[in-house]
Amino acid sequence: MGRDQQEDRRLRALAGSIPDRHHNPERTPSTLSINGRTPAPLDQWDPTYCGDVDMAIAEDGTWYHEGLPIRRKELWQLFAGILRREADGEYYLVTPVEKCRVGVALHPLIITDFEVCETEGQTVVQASLNAGGRFPVSIAHPLAPEPRASGAAYMGLPHGLTALCSRAAWYRLVALADDRHRIHSDGTFFSLV
Predict the structure, then answer these.
(1) What predicted TM-score, i.e. pTM, was given to this entire model?
(2) What distance in Å separates the CA atoms of residue 38 and residue 46, rounded to the nearest whole number?
(3) Is 107 helix (H, G, I), strand (E, B) or coil?
(4) HEC readout, 32-91
(5) Cα–Cα distance measured from residue 40 to residue 149, given in angstroms and rounded to the nearest whole number
(6) Residue 8 belongs to what H/E stretch?
């Protein structure tokens, strides 16, 4: 069996080792999830490291396998739901039985849009992710400027992940800012500069 076939089998095996409940779309919009599916309990999984997988995430959020873009959105979204950043600063795809290191150029996820919502009398800015999830801008999920992206904002997410604003999302966020370049969400101000 050639190297390409081995790598393809490894990728399929990795996807197959994700428990079924994390494949299904989440029905409760209030559940915070990277990909809109039932969140995987990544903090409870401590599998054996099985090496690097020839997978990378480009600065624009495109996922690559063996140098080719992963065209099936459902597949890379599934992988996004089992991605975590560990104390060593590296990113890993994690299942209950194994973990593989993945290369990330800048941020693993992209914010595609923002929406202002009223929740329990509080103004909340919701960020939509390219992987299908939504998160409120809050103390738990703060915004900060990213100097490596000309100061565009990025957001902190669970499991050490982050999401950088797309150009359109960044313009939308700037339009929502007050005259002091701040976003008010969930009772807190976040500076965009």
Answers:
(1) 0.84
(2) 19
(3) coil
(4) CCCCCECCCCCCCCCCEEEEEEEEEECCCCCEEECCEECCCHHHHHHHHCCEEECCCCCE
(5) 30
(6) helix 3-16
Residue 112: how many other CB atoms lie within 10 Å: 18
Q: Which amino acid is present at 66?
A: E
* Angle formed by the axes of helices 73-80 and 3-16, nearest 10°: 60
Domains of the chain, CATH where assigned: 3-104 (3.10.540.10), 109-191 (2.30.270.10)
- Print pLDDT tens along the chain (193 aa): 555 565 556 566 666 656 555 545 544 455 789 999 999 999 999 999 998 889 999 999 999 999 999 999 999 999 999 999 999 999 999 999 999 999 999 999 999 999 999 978 899 999 999 999 999 999 999 999 999 999 999 999 999 999 999 999 999 999 999 999 999 999 999 999 9
**How far from 58 is each of 67, 112, 192, CA to CA, in Å?**
11, 16, 24
